[in-house]
Design a protein that fits this description.
single chain; elongated
């Protein structure tokens, strides 16, 4: 790099030029330092990167540097018969609201022997399971990402089939109300446990030698 010195004759500054080899050495040194600094900056962690962990702004209800605060993932849907206690009761209350205010209000049709119903359907576990599955499918297919045909698919593939099973003449509600004027409710007994289950619990079907019946 040129430096200036004072001329002994006139008192003016005159530039001093370095040899070309000296300039090349200085340029190489500067270029090497710039490259080292660039490499160091690449190795430094980005404080605004999307690193795991809570945002320091979340406690104040403010979005973090990356935009809006992260929303917790919604809970995964579970079949209602897998729920217990208050969780089951709350889910059943929500299901009842949908069945009474939407499903039966719109798609209930007339109660007949060909399409029975029960005002106490909540006590029929199989009916609860069918209607809950139908409700979850309804929630999924009404979302925008289901597309314009979402509700048609729900009507065709879910509503028609579920209602045909639940309200079948020989279905789970066939011993309940077959006329609006004659309310009735009876839970039909299901089959007994299989032989394998009975054997595992210590029960046997061997005949009693004294009575000739099962032990």
């Amino acid at each position: 790099m040129p430096e200036s010195t004072e001329s002994p004759n006139e008192g003016e500054l005159e530039p001093v030029r370095l040899p070309d080899s000296g300039l090349e050495a200085v340029e190489a040194s500067v270029r090497r330092r710039l490259m080292d600094r660039s490499a160091d900056s690449d190795r430094q962690p980005d404080p605004f990167s999307s690193a795991p962990g809570p945002s320091p702004f979340a406690a104040f209800g403010m979005p973090g540097p990356g935009g809006l605060p992260r929303q917790p993932a919604p809970p995964e849907p579970r079949p209602i018969l897998e729920l217990e206690g208050q969780e089951y009761e709350d889910e059943l209350d929500s299901l009842t609201d949908w069945v009474d205010d939407c499903l039966m209000e719109i798609y209930g049709a007339e109660v007949t022997t060909a399409a029975p119903w029960c005002a106490q359907w909540q006590e029929h576990d199989d009916v609860v399971a069918w209607l809950h599955a139908l409700w979850m499918a309804y929630q999924q297919h009404k979302e925008p990402d289901a597309g314009l045909a979402g509700m048609f698919v729900w009507h065709r593939d879910f509503l028609t089939h579920a209602m045909a099973v639940v309200r079948a003449p020989g279905g789970p509600l066939s011993a309940c109300m077959t006329s609006p004027d004659r309310p009735a409710h009876r839970v039909l007994p299901g089959p007994k446990p299989s032989v394998r289950s009975a054997t595992g619990s210590g029960e046997t079907d061997e005949p009693d030698p004294e009575t000739g019946g099962a032990a």
